[in-house]
UniProtKB/TrEMBL annotation:
Record key words, sorted: DNA integration, DNA recombination, DNA-binding
Short name of one Pfam family: Phage_int_SAM_3
Ranges for domain Tyr recombinase: 180-393
Family that this chain belongs to: Belongs to the 'phage' integrase family.
Organism for this UniProt entry: Agromyces ramosus
Tree of life domain: Bacteria
SUPFAM superfamilies reported for this sequence: DNA breaking-rejoining enzymes (SSF56349)
InterPro entries attached to this UniProt entry: DNA_brk_join_enz, Integrase-like_cat_sf, Integrase_catalytic, Integrase_recombinase_N, Integrase_SAM-like_N, Tyrosine_recombinase_XerCD
Name of the featured protein: Integrase
Length: 397
């Protein structure tokens, strides 16, 4: 009889021997994830210490091997083991941003793992997943959507590595969201917001603390003139601006990222890499940018147009908070930076086309623009009355 075949990740009999140096060597055969058996050894001053060192070394090799149906993960593995390997696999691929990686792990650990952690992989079927997602949807649509994404991705990994025959999340019913018409500001409301910010920046009602530096008004004008996200606006550098040519432009080429425990920084592409775009500016935005450049006076092309007094990036949270504080003092509520983005999209759609609105917003699909950014007009084009008049005019007696 030959030696028993090792399974992947297992090792054979441990043998020891005394080396010429007097140290003890412990060695064994170990079957790696690629199916090949290799000799692994470790040395120490005593036999027991050498065996402990060898087992520690084997444990390190085990952590590096991928999960597979014949390796660490089996249908009887606990769901938590799959989560751990799924996160390792994400890091190994390196395809998603660090921000998305953090979001995935947070959603998995806070939303999904508490429900599934005591289950084995074979116990996670369509019915259980479907019920879970529906229970999450009763709390909120976003909670259900975030849970669905990470649970589907983790189970898909188990399918790819032949641990599960199919992904139960593929058969879970869709989560439906109540349709909501995107809101948008009117020109009267926009000018009222401008007036409030101008009064605040003039210092008329200033009591204590640092005086307004004039950035908030300019930030709003850039959002109204470009439809850019607040993070994209705060990431604009001097080199991204051309207000001297016949057609003033701003290049949207980055965004501001704030992560817990890390300094805020500028990312060298917008929300998506495909969102890079050069936007022609209306006169009110070009004038606001010129004034801001005159105030900063920093000739460095890499310097941020909107920044702290120390030249560091502003956080999107602080700008949102300041905008809300200024407007609520004047009795104007519900205004967010994203509302300006929807307002611009609606105006461009109403006066041109949804395709142009999508291009301005940096969308590759007009469906997103229509569903989330454009306020639908209830008034149907009056030309329909003329068309029907010609089609069904009453015969004269």
């Amino acid at each position: 009889m030959g030696r028993p075949r090792l399974t992947i990740g297992s090792f054979g009999e441990v043998t020891t021997r005394v080396l010429p140096s007097g140290r003890i060597e412990a060695r064994t055969r170990y079957r790696d994830w690629d199916g090949r058996s290799r000799i692994v050894q470790a040395t120490a001053v005593t036999a027991k210490a050498a065996e402990r060192a060898l087992k520690h070394k084997l444990a390190g090799r085990s952590e590096l091997q991928p999960a597979s149906g014949t390796g660490h993960l089996t249908p009887d593995s606990p769901f938590g083991d799959l989560v751990a390997y799924w996160l390792q696999d994400i890091d190994l691929e390196g395809r998603i941003s660090k921000t998305t990686r953090i979001l995935y792990e947070r959603n998995m650990r806070t939303l999904v793992l508490p429900v599934f952690e005591h289950l084995t992989l074979r116990e996670i079927g369509v019915a259980r997943c479907d019920r879970f997602i529906k229970e999450q949807a009763r709390i909120s649509y976003n909670r259900a959507k975030q849970s669905r994404v990470v649970l589907r991705l983790a189970l898909e990994l188990a399918v790819r590595h032949e641990v599960l025959p199919a992904n139960p999340m593929h058969h879970v019913s869709r989560v439906h969201r109540e349709s909501r018409m995107p809101d948008a500001l009117t020109s009267v409301e926009v000018n009222a917001i401008r007036a409030v910010i101008t009064r605040w920046e003039s210092g008329v009602d200033h009591v204590s603390g640092p005086r307004p530096d004039g950035q908030l008004g300019a930030i709003v004008e850039v959002m109204l003139g470009t439809s850019a996200r607040i993070g994209e606006v705060l990431a604009i550098r001097r080199r991204d601006i051309d207000v001297t040519g016949l057609t003033p432009t701003i290049r949207i080429a980055g965004t501001i990222i704030s992560r817990h425990g890390e300094p805020t920084f500028r990312q060298d592409h917008p929300k998506t890499a495909k969102s890079r775009r050069i936007v022609a500016l209306p006169s009110y935005t070009a004038e606001a940018v010129r004034r801001r450049l005159a105030v900063t006076g920093d000739p460095d092309p890499e310097s941020l147009v909107f920044c702290s007094r120390e030249g560091t990036p502003l956080t999107t949270a602080n700008v949102r908070r300041q905008l809300r504080h200024v407007l609520e003092r004047a009795g104007i509520g519900g205004v967010t930076p994203h509302l300006f983005r929807r307002t611009v999209a609606t105006a461009v759609n109403n006066n041109a086309s949804v395709e142009l609105a999508a291009e301005l917003l940096g969308h590759t699909d007009t469906k997103i623009t229509v569903q989330h950014y454009i306020q639908r007009r209830e008034l149907v084009n009056p030309v329909t009355a003329e068309l029907l008049e010609r089609a069904f005019r009453r015969d004269e007696d």
